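BUG: 3D viewer hangs when loading the predicted structure for this chain

Environment: internal workstation, default settings.
Expected: structure renders.
Actual: progress bar stalls at 90%.

Input used:
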Amino acid sequence: MREKFELLRVRPLAQIKQALIEEAQRMHAEDIATNQAMGRHGATLMPANGGVLTHCNAGALATCGYGTALGVIRAAVEQGKRIHVYADEPVPFCRVTLDGVGTEEGWYSTTVISDNMAGAMMKQGKINAIVVARSHCRQR
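Structure tokens produced before the viewer hung:
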């Protein structure tokens, strides 16, 4: 957005505002398309029925609406897979907030676990796949 602004800074304010709004809309659409593509690809790797561990997932609240790690889960469920998510997080309150978006819409069932429980859950055979979110900390 800074680069866009620098290119437009000599134009009238109304044109700058409109161009920045259009750029934000383009970025929003790009993020959703990227997350959906990532979700479709990742869904092919998910079990037809089983437990999936998410670590540092990015759901609708951290992305433009579809999600990265949760996008994979969402796409898998859309393909008819029955997924139970084990969401590990050192701060479970944050995880419940992010995962609540998917569970309210019935995409999957979820169990919040502390991050140090992941190994025990794997040993018990409850984890069939692991999904880690991509970072949204990149600079454009």
